[in-house]
Structure to design on (190 residues):
């Protein structure tokens, strides 16, 4: 895949259709300014700061903007918090609405018709395909993103992280855990 990308970039550059510096700027933006690490920072802050978590519940757009994670596709946000009894799952059934400013570019599977339809019809089965088997007693709540409102799942804080810093906690948060198709990493990952 990397070789194909380089070949395509070379051809487009030679034909004068793209500027390599512009490509570098876009890549830099998605590597350092937009992406799952932003959402992980939001989640970690909510885990350690109960006032921030309350704000995130009431007005996620403002709480996320406070951390400077704003931009296209993240203008209207709602945070949904997993609990021991409820697991949240995000989908966009009509297209692929996704909060780029906190999660980066959407994964290919998020945009796929099978995920978009099955997440609503059989969320437990979809989660199992991602390797996430929840107890039968856990309720699964499916949230349908739209162009007007996008969702960020705040997963449960992993046990054994009481002394962790925000940075250590953020390292445990995965993109999939913020969509609801996964859980945070185990504490040994830090």
């Amino acid at each position: 895949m990397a070789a194909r990308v380089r070949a395509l970039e070379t051809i487009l550059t030679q034909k004068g259709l793209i500027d390599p510096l512009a490509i570098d700027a876009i890549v830099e933006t998605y590597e350092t300014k937009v992406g799952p690490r932003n959402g992980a920072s939001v989640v970690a802050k909510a885990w350690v700061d109960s006032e921030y978590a309350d704000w995130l519940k009431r007005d996620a757009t403002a709480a996320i903007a406070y951390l400077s994670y704003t931009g296209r596709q993240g203008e209207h946000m709602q945070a949904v918090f997993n609990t021991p009894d409820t697991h949240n799952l995000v989908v966009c059934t009509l297209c692929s609405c996704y909060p780029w400013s906190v999660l980066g570019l959407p994964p290919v599977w998020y945009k796929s018709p099978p995920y978009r339809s099955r997440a609503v019809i059989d969320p437990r089965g979809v989660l199992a395909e991602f390797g996430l088997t929840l107890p039968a007693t856990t309720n699964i709540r499916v949230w349908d993103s739209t162009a007007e409102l996008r969702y960020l799942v705040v997963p449960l804080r992993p046990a054994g992280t009481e002394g962790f810093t925000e940075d250590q906690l953020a390292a445990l948060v995965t993109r999939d855990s913020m969509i609801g198709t996964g859980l945070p990493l185990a504490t040994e990952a830090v």
